[in-house]
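Session log. Operator J.P. requested a structure for one protein chain; no other inputs attached. Running the standard single-chain path with token output.
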Amino acid sequence: MTNFDKKTLTVTHDGAAPVTFTVEVDPANTGHWKPVHQLESKPGEPATYAFPEGFGAYWVRVTADKPCTATATCVYE
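Structure written below.
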């Protein structure tokens, strides 16, 4: 995620009910995860989060609050 000014994350899932996703980052590549946002995706509807401009981190992970098959897509510009 470093060296890009604009970053967005979009999640989708196959669940029958809304799913809340927690977005966490490891800002210094130390294995210490920090939650930065939660977003809810309704069935059949993608949910998108735009990271603040200039935000940087080495790793990002996304977890769901209930069982589902999900896709998380990051776009860096």
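Operator note: Residues 7-76 form one domain.
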